[in-house]
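B., you asked whether I could sanity-check this one before it goes into the benchmark set. Here's the sequence:
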Amino acid sequence: MISVVVATYNGEKFITEQLNSIKNQNCQPDEVIIRDDRSSDATAEIVRKYIKENNLINWDFEINSENKGYKKIFMIY
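And here's what the prediction gave me:
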Protein backbone atom coordinates (compact mmCIF):
# COMPACT_ATOMS: atom_id res chain seq x y z
CA MET A 1 0.00 0.00 0.00
CA ILE A 2 1.31 3.42 -0.95
CA SER A 3 0.31 6.36 1.25
CA VAL A 4 1.24 9.98 0.68
CA VAL A 5 1.01 12.29 3.66
CA VAL A 6 0.98 16.07 3.17
CA ALA A 7 1.09 18.81 5.77
CA THR A 8 -0.13 22.23 4.67
CA TYR A 9 0.10 25.67 6.20
CA ASN A 10 -0.39 28.96 4.34
CA GLY A 11 0.71 27.39 1.08
CA GLU A 12 -1.83 28.84 -1.34
CA LYS A 13 0.89 29.97 -3.78
CA PHE A 14 2.26 26.46 -4.30
CA ILE A 15 -0.38 23.97 -3.17
CA THR A 16 -1.91 23.36 -6.61
CA GLU A 17 1.51 22.56 -8.05
CA GLN A 18 2.15 20.15 -5.19
CA LEU A 19 -1.24 18.45 -5.59
CA ASN A 20 -0.71 18.15 -9.35
CA SER A 21 2.63 16.49 -8.71
CA ILE A 22 1.02 13.88 -6.49
CA LYS A 23 -1.94 13.30 -8.81
CA ASN A 24 0.24 12.94 -11.90
CA GLN A 25 2.64 10.30 -10.56
CA ASN A 26 3.09 7.22 -12.73
CA CYS A 27 2.56 5.01 -9.70
CA GLN A 28 -0.62 6.26 -8.05
CA PRO A 29 -0.85 6.17 -4.25
CA ASP A 30 -3.58 4.13 -2.62
CA GLU A 31 -4.36 7.06 -0.36
CA VAL A 32 -3.40 10.68 0.09
CA ILE A 33 -3.78 12.16 3.56
CA ILE A 34 -3.67 15.94 3.79
CA ARG A 35 -3.74 17.84 7.08
CA ASP A 36 -3.90 21.61 7.23
CA ASP A 37 -2.46 23.26 10.34
CA ARG A 38 -5.01 26.10 10.52
CA SER A 39 -3.87 28.10 7.50
CA SER A 40 -4.97 31.73 7.46
CA ASP A 41 -4.86 31.96 3.66
CA ALA A 42 -6.89 30.11 0.99
CA THR A 43 -4.96 26.83 1.22
CA ALA A 44 -7.87 24.81 2.65
CA GLU A 45 -10.34 26.09 0.06
CA ILE A 46 -7.93 25.31 -2.78
CA VAL A 47 -7.35 21.76 -1.51
CA ARG A 48 -11.08 21.05 -1.06
CA LYS A 49 -11.88 22.38 -4.52
CA TYR A 50 -9.02 20.42 -6.11
CA ILE A 51 -10.13 17.13 -4.54
CA LYS A 52 -13.75 17.68 -5.58
CA GLU A 53 -13.01 18.82 -9.14
CA ASN A 54 -10.68 15.88 -9.75
CA ASN A 55 -12.96 13.32 -8.05
CA LEU A 56 -10.12 12.11 -5.84
CA ILE A 57 -12.09 9.73 -3.65
CA ASN A 58 -9.00 8.20 -2.02
CA TRP A 59 -7.76 11.62 -0.84
CA ASP A 60 -8.59 12.64 2.72
CA PHE A 61 -8.39 16.28 3.83
CA GLU A 62 -8.89 17.70 7.30
CA ILE A 63 -8.08 20.92 9.10
CA ASN A 64 -6.59 20.57 12.56
CA SER A 65 -8.73 21.86 15.40
CA GLU A 66 -5.75 23.92 16.56
CA ASN A 67 -2.34 24.86 15.17
CA LYS A 68 0.05 22.08 16.19
CA GLY A 69 3.21 23.04 14.31
CA TYR A 70 5.09 20.97 11.79
CA LYS A 71 6.52 18.50 14.31
CA LYS A 72 3.14 17.45 15.71
CA ILE A 73 0.75 17.90 12.78
CA PHE A 74 0.22 14.14 12.34
CA MET A 75 0.53 13.00 15.94
CA ILE A 76 -2.50 11.29 17.42
CA TYR A 77 -3.10 11.97 21.09
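One thing to flag: The mean pLDDT is 91. Otherwise nothing jumped out at me.
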